Task: inverse folding
């Protein structure tokens, strides 16, 4: 049973608004929203429950700022788009991966209010899950996930640094929080800092200042997200602090440090060292222990399990019966490349749940094409056999991940043979 969601002011952040957007603000405030309006550059420092973004052409041309804002916010976002930009696969892909939903301008106000209410409920539900130590992104029975959980159990109690390597949306911060929960520092603070957000001087102040992240993490864990973007001069200072276990301030004060450092990177630090963009000593210190999060596209056996989890989660929030996925939706999910990993899967299932009719989520609801993917390049007959075997296994797992005996029967093989094939293709 879920704990009761406490009542609290509902804070809405409107980013890069147009004139029409400003006209609807009084109506949203009458509906109980506390609305603030800021530019995209200012929004990173804002405090809010739900985000509303006026999606402009420059956002689509240079989407990194929008992606960074949404990924760091930890909540749900709704896009407002101009009718001239409503079509096109690139826009649909962008909306499906990063937003709860989208509405055309001029806005249908009742529909917007309904979307905001649902997004707020899901965001609060996500917050409850985080407080309870929910580890849904580590759900799965694939070999990479089992190996990752074993590594977490081994490294969690240690005080040594860990470098977490993985693609965007793969759950690097979740892994860091799991390591913290498994450590002797669990009663201490967990402090997260994104190394690529601010200019070098502001980064230095926030990281090494009297009230900075290092000082705040004393007795606990400091998670340095995107450490490959930390300025080179700050890398050297960080290494000196951690090796000496003391933080020296400009005024001469020296503060003893008892901090475990966890860091994440999308880039290979070895390559950056060769390019003279990363300190070799810090790289060596960080890579004493290294965790690699396997991208979702290489964990086919986990996709249907995670999708069902998210669908059940959203049904709890809505107070409705859980939806189920059509066969075409399961096949489409197994064929999709998931560039946004688990974060994208959650976003698409959330979108599909909102659009689904009669309790069935279809491929179109997920923003995925139900048509077969394009054929692979020509190869040997053995290449074709191997690809066909792999795809057959993926389809079986997508449909019957909760009953592997039935999946084996559908493919016409014995259960031992089915397991052997899963291990051969590293799907289990």
Result:
């Amino acid at each position: 049973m879920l704990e009761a969601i406490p009542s609290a002011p509902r804070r809405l952040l409107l980013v890069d608004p147009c004139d029409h957007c400003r006209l609807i603000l009084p109506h949203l405030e009458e509906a109980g929203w506390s609305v603030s309006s800021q530019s995209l550059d200012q929004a990173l420092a804002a405090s809010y429950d739900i985000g509303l973004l006026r999606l402009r052409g420059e956002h689509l041309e240079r989407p990194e700022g929008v992606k960074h804002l949404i990924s760091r916010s930890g909540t749900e976002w709704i896009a407002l788009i101009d009718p001239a930009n409503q079509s096109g696969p690139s826009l649909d892909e962008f909306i499906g991966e990063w937003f709860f939903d989208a509405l055309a301008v001029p806005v249908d106000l009742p529909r917007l209010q309904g979307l905001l209410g649902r997004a707020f409920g899901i965001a609060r539900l996500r917050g409850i899950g985080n407080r309870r130590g929910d580890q849904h992104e580590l759900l799965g029975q694939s070999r990479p996930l089992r190996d990752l959980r074993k590594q977490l159990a081994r490294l969690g109690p240690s005080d040594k640094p860990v470098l977490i390597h993985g693609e965007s949306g793969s759950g690097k911060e979740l892994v860091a929080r799991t390591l913290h929960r498994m450590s002797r520092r669990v009663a201490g603070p967990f402090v997260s800092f994104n190394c690529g957000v601010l200019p070098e001087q502001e980064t230095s102040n926030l990281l090494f200042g009297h009230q900075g992240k290092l000082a705040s993490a004393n007795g606990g864990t400091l998670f340095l997200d995107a450490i490959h973007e930390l300025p080179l001069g700050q890398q050297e200072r960080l290494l000196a602090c951690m090796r000496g276990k003391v933080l020296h301030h400009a005024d001469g004060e020296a503060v003893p440090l008892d901090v475990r450092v966890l860091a994440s990177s999308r880039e290979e630090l070895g390559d950056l060292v060769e390019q003279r963009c990363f300190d070799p000593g810090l790289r060596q210190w960080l890579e004493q222990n290294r965790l690699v999060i396997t991208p979702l596209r290489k964990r086919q056996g986990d996709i249907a399990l995670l999708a069902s989890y998210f669908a059940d989660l959203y049904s709890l929030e809505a107070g409705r019966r859980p939806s189920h996925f059509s066969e075409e939706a399961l096949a489409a999910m197994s064929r999709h490349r998931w560039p946004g990993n688990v974060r994208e899967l959650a976003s698409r299932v959330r979108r599909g749940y909102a659009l689904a009719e009669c309790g069935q989520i279809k491929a179109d609801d997920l923003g995925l094409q139900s048509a077969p993917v394009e054929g692979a390049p020509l190869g040997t007959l053995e290449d074709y056999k191997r690809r066909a075997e792999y795809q057959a296994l993926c389809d079986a797992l997508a449909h019957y991940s909760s009953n592997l005996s039935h999946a084996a029967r559908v493919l016409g093989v014995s259960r031992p043979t089915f397991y052997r094939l899963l291990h051969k293709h590293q799907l289990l």
